[in-house]
Amino acid sequence: METIGVLLLNLGGPDSLDAVRPFLYNLFSDRLIIKLGPPFMQRPIAALIAATRAEKSRSMYAQIGGASPLSRITIDQAKALSNALSQPQFAVFTGMRYWHPYIEDAVKTAYDSGIREFIALSLYPHYSLATTGSSFGELERVLSTKYPARCRYIRSWPDNPLYIAALTELINEGIAEFDGRYPHIIFSAHALPEYFITQGDPYVTEINKTIDALRPALKGREIHQSYQSRSGPVKWLEPSTEVTIEMLAGDGIKDILVVPISFVSDHIETLYEIDIFYRDFALKRGIILKRVKSLNTHPVFIQALKTLINEVLE
Ligand SMILES: C=CC1=C(C)c2cc3[nH]c(cc4nc(cc5[nH]c(cc1n2)c(C)c5CCC(=O)O)C(CCC(=O)O)=C4C)c(C)c3C=C
Ligand SMILES: [Fe+2]
Ligand SMILES: [Fe+2]
Predict the structure, then answer these.
(1) What Pfam families does this protein map onto (predicted)?
(2) Where would I find the beta strands (DSSP E) of the chain?
(3) pLDDT > 80? residue 1
(4) Beta carbons within 8 Å of 137's beta carbon, 6+ residues apart
(5) Which residues does residue 102 pair with via DSSP β-bridges, in sequence order?
(6) Are 137 and 8 members of one domain?
(7) 72-98 exposure pattern, b = at least 16 Cβ within 10 A, e = fewer
(8) What is d(CA 38, CA 277) in angstroms, rounded to the nearest whole number?
(9) Residues 166-184, mean pLDDT to the nearest whole number
């Protein structure tokens, strides 16, 4: 039987402080995430923004240990998934959009080992053109220009039952940390410029699907929804996580549990933005803010990924 290559796709993150600026350059060079003037101006403007933003980003990465753990965690997820899948039917690879190991590196490694059939599994639970769309576009480019092969795509999985079960378990663990008090729950997703949605991006609809699937397990708890990590002068989805915390502070709320709903791994958005920045922001307003752990290599989550692979083969 021919081995199928499973490609786990994610954003990637700088693996050292020196990598921050070139990582930002790669990110801002991508017209699917942000359009900077006419096409020929994209790279020069990306270089400018990367240079301008690097210092602020570096200081955030410095506060979480000097690097993003995203690639390392994705590689751990690949190992765990590889152990869960039957061998030698599958081999699992990790391909990042904006830093090493790049999507092209993953495909080359697989190709060199003789693989000619792929399953691309996006590790963003919710589809957006800016994230999954961009990764699939890059993969299609690599396959069509250098490594011709068959590829099936797993686009999104906002209400996969095992994904929801794993999240439910982690949310309940988070609630238990409040020692019987009653935290308000904020589902915090990565922000997206509003024009994506106006142009038909399903990102918000799919996030709502995840939250709706979690609702029965959260019986009657106070739920809020917000968007974190804006990064430029356009109109972003509302409300921001900051404004939501501020509003709850105004209502006299003392306990908040943040669920990082659009990510499955730890990286700067969980380790710095929620754990350091929002926690401190809340504390200054008399609020204890805690975060639900990221799925990372949670065994039920790895089983969820396995069911996605099996479903696409049916
Ligand atoms: C659902 C996930 C994500 C969406 C949607 C998204 C959109 C988006 N992001 C930027 C700009 C930046 N993103 C950065 C980091 C980053 N973004 C995501 C996910 C989504 N981005 C992740 C998982 C990470 C973490 C990377 C890591 O640390 O491992 C950064 C770099 C950090 C910083 O300087 O703030 C930028 C910049 C835009 C413009 C955008 C719009 C569609
Ligand atoms: Fe981002
Ligand atoms: Fe971000």
Answers:
(1) Ferrochelatase (PF00762)
(2) 4-10, 90-96, 117-122, 150-154, 184-190, 223-228, 255-260, 288-291
(3) no
(4) 32
(5) 96
(6) yes
(7) ebbbbbbebbbeebeeeebbbbbbbbb
(8) 35
(9) 97
pTM: 0.96
Q: Check whether 170 has a pLDDT greater than 90.
A: yes
Give the distance (Å) from ligand 2 centre to CA of residue 215. Answer: 26
Percent of the chain at pLDDT exceeding 90: 96
Residue 103: pLDDT over 80: yes
Gyration radius from the chain CA atoms: 20
User: How far, in Å, from the CA of 70 to the mean position of ligand 1?
Assistant: 12
Judge contact between 244 and 281, C-beta under 8 A. Answer: no
Between the CA of 271 and the centroid of ligand 2 the distance, in Å, is 14
Residue 233: the pLDDT is 82
Average pLDDT (113-121) is: 98
- Rounded Cα–Cα distance for residues 231 and 237 (Å): 12
Same domain for 198 and 283: yes
Residue 176 lies in a domain: yes
- Residue 80 lies inside a defined structural domain of this protein: yes
CA distance linking residue 297 with residue 78, whole number of Å: 9
Query: Are 272 and 196 within one domain?
Result: yes
**Both tokens assigned to 40:** 């020929």
Cβ neighbours of residue 56 closer than 8 Å, sequence gap 6 or more: none
Question: Cα separation of 211 and 221, whole Å?
Answer: 12
| Residue 70 beta carbon below 6 angstroms from any ligand 1 atom | yes
Q: What is the ipTM of this complex?
A: 0.91
Query: Looking at residue 61, what is its pLDDT?
Result: 98
Per the annotation, where are the binding residues for Fe(2+)? 190, 269
